[in-house]
Amino acid sequence: MRESGAQAALEPDREFSLDAWFGGKLMLAQPKSGHRVGSDAALLAAALDVVEGRIVDVGAGVGAVGLALAFRAERASVDLVEIDMGLARLAALNAARNGLAARVRALELDVMDAGARARANVLDNSADAVLTNPPFYAARSVRVSPDPKRARAHVYAGCSDAPLVDWMRACMAILKPGGRFAMIHRPEALAAILDAAQYRLGALALLPVHPRLGAPACRLLICGVKGSKAPLRIAPPLVLHSADGRFTPEADAIHRGAALLNWGL
Fold first, then answer.
1. Helix, strand, or coil (residue 3)
2. In the prediction, which pLDDT does 11 show?
3. Where are the domains of the chain?
4. pLDDT confidence of residue 13
5. Which of 12, 163, 176, 209 has the fewest CB neighbours in a 10 Å radius?
6. Residues 201-220, buried b or exposed e (16+ Cβ, 10 A)?
7. pLDDT digits (tens, 9 = 90+) for 164-182
């Protein structure tokens, strides 16, 4: 584990861009190639209404989700957990650029390594909220991108037979009892998601995201409470685009950081 120091502000160049995000509330430096901040981050940042406490963003990339939570929750502290050294450094720089470094740590850390988590003071049963956007695919199930950064963002490293289950359980280990968990993933991963959540998360809610009305869901948002006995429920679906290709009003407000997801409560 290595905590990334916030050095002089990174300026955009041929390798990095500097982009307004979260309705212009945050400026993010990010690589021009590979995985870039988009709708998945906006949706995950809108998943939980956290006011205070300790938040851990696992698989943080350049820090978009955790920084959005830190911006919105002024009494919260945030750990940005990212295995890629370069992205963890960018996350630290983005925290500093946006005036959030006093409440945000960027950690170069493999969340599946319990010993590394402990050495980084990312302790089990310690977080009030954990949010995560895991890699979506096992290495043996897809053709891996030749771009190493894109491959790492999309495909699990290692040889686990159930990488999503392992990832979720590592995230849930960090949560304190009563803490809240949120994740974005593919709808076809539902069986593994329910397997990982069993006996660990209650009040589990599933929110399908559709690219347009009448199209199959392209994403699934999941939230739950550690140790709760409340039953599973299905939240109202979110449709991203109108017939003209523009964001629906609800999706537009979420992308601007002006609204949270509607969990139907």
1. strand
2. 56
3. 39-255
4. 65
5. 12
6. bebbbbbbbbeeeeeebebb
7. 999 999 999 999 999 999 9
Q: Which residues pair with 78 in a beta bridge?
A: 55, 104
What is the token pair recorded at 184? Answer: 């974005």
Q: Give the integer Cα–Cα distance in Å for 230 and 227.
A: 9
Report d(CA 242, CA 212) in Å as an integer: 6
Per-residue pLDDT tens over the stretch 23-36 = 999 999 999 888 88
> Of the candidates 256, 254, 252, 247, which has an alpha carbon nearest to the alpha carbon of residue 22?
256
- Percentage of the chain exceeding pLDDT 70: 85
Which amino acid makes up residue 87?
A: L
Q: What does R_g of the chain's alpha carbons equal in angstroms?
A: 17
Position 259, amino acid: A
**How many C-alpha atoms does 16 have within 13 Å on its Cβ side?**
17
